[in-house]
Amino acid sequence: MHEVSIAQGLLDIVIENCRKQGYSGIESIKVKIGKAAGVVPDALLFAFESMKVDTIAEKATLIIDQVPISGFCNGCKSNFTVDDAYVICCPHCNSFSIRVDTGRELNVDEMEVV
Amino acid sequence: MKVKVVTNILEANDRIADENRRIFQEAGVYVINMMSGPGAGKTSLLVRTIQEMQQKVKIGVIEGDIAGTDDAERIDKLGVPVVQINTGGGCHLDANMIREVLPDMPLKDLDLLIIENVGNLVCPAEFKVGEDIKVMLLSVAEGHDKPLKYPLMFQESSALLLNKIDLLPYIDVDMAKIRKDSLSLNPKLKMFEVSCKTGQGISEWAQWLETLVKK
């Protein structure tokens, strides 16, 4: 629901990076968004398209790399990955004693510049 | 040419939130970020909490709403400092909005600052504002499916208040399921059953909060 703030945040980051390093344009931006981060990819793309206008990222494509929730179960000592937006217990043995390692990412990963 | 950036998109917000937190710590004020869906009873809970604690704890309130000043007016009547933020469509409060109103809040005179977030079960959980803890409110009439539908807020909160329990005789809600699913998402979650209409359960919640403030 706050995809506009996210789009603004990522644009601020890449534009600031370009300004510091002297690049004049951005062709693509790759972001890593965890499935549990509460961000709807389509809404983020839509927000990005409208907010990039009149910036040096005007021609940039946004590439969203969705990161699934994964972690380690202390019960059955195995790694797990799930498709949902949340995880309550180990999908293998139903143990509640789990460590979640990925799925909350909200990062700008890399950009292609000119 | 590809350039690695690897920066958290919410980093700017988190940095301001950390600064807010330093300001709160220096002033010696404990801060809670209160979140819920629209209409769960955040302002009613605030009124009850202030009435219960006012003699012992000096409280200030920041009200976040998309528009209007109704909530701030209700709090103002109780004689505590209150500032209204209108987000103008924004679905949550962020650290910078809080930062901008801090000069209007007599922080040094306060023990407890309660920030009432915009009514929304999704976004407020994602944005830190500099709080010590997040507290969420769910009115029982919203239904027992909410913890699993909106997991992040349940995971981020330190306490869950189940409000409007005076309605329980009239509605089909599985309280055991709310408790079980909430605890599965967050085993450390402290839960209170309250009714802001009758006042039931308010003193237990206020005592718990007072212990945290006086720590």
Summary?
With 114 residues, chain A is an alpha+beta fold. Chain A has helices at residues 3-21, 41-51, and strands at 26-34, 61-67, 69-73, 78-82, 98-102, 106-113.
What does this structure look like?
The complex is a heterodimer of chains A (114) and B (215). Chain A is of the alpha+beta class and 114 residues long. Chain A is 26% helix and 34% strand. In chain A, helix 2 links the parallel strand 1 and strand 2 (61-67). Chain B has 215 residues and is α/β, with parallel strands linked by helices. In chain B, helix 7 (175-185) links the parallel strand 7 and strand 8. In chain B, helix 1 runs parallel beside helix 4 (95-101). Chain B contains 8 helices and 8 strands. Chain B has a 7-stranded parallel beta sheet with strand order 4-3-5-2-6-7-8, with helices on both faces. Chain B has helices at 11-27, 42-53, 70-76, 95-101, 146-149, 151-156, 175-185, 202-214; strands at residues 2-8, 30-36, 59-65, 82-86, 112-116, 133-139, 159-163, 190-193. The A-B interface holds A 1-2, 5-6, 9-10, 12-14, 17, 21, 23, 31, 36-38, 85-86, 88-89, 96, 106-114 and B 1-13, 90-92, 94, 120, 122-123, 125-127, 148, 151-152, 155, 181, 184-185, 187.
Main features:
A: 114 residues; alpha+beta; hypothetical protein PF0899 fold; 26% helix; B: 215 residues; alpha/beta; Rossmann fold; 8 strands
Q: What is the rounded distance between the termini of chain B?
A: 54 Å
User: What order do the strands of the largest sheet of chain A run in, or round the barrel if closed?
Assistant: 2-1-6
SS-derived structural category of chain A: alpha+beta
State the total count of DSSP E strands of chain B.
Answer: 8
Which CATH-level-2 architecture of the domain at 3-68 and 103-113 in chain A?
A: 2-Layer Sandwich
Q: Can you tell me the CATH class of the domain at 3-68 and 103-113 in chain A?
A: Alpha Beta
CATH superfamily of chain B: P-loop containing nucleotide triphosphate hydrolases
Overall average pLDDT of chain B: 95
SS element count, helices of chain B: 8
Largest interface: A-B, 30 and 31 residues
- What percent strand of chain A? 25-35%
Counting copies of identical and different chains, the oligomeric state is heterodimer
Order of helices and strands of chain A: HEHEEEEE
Q: What is the percent of helical residues of chain B?
A: 25-40%
CATH classification, class level of chain B? Alpha Beta
CATH topology of chain B: Rossmann fold
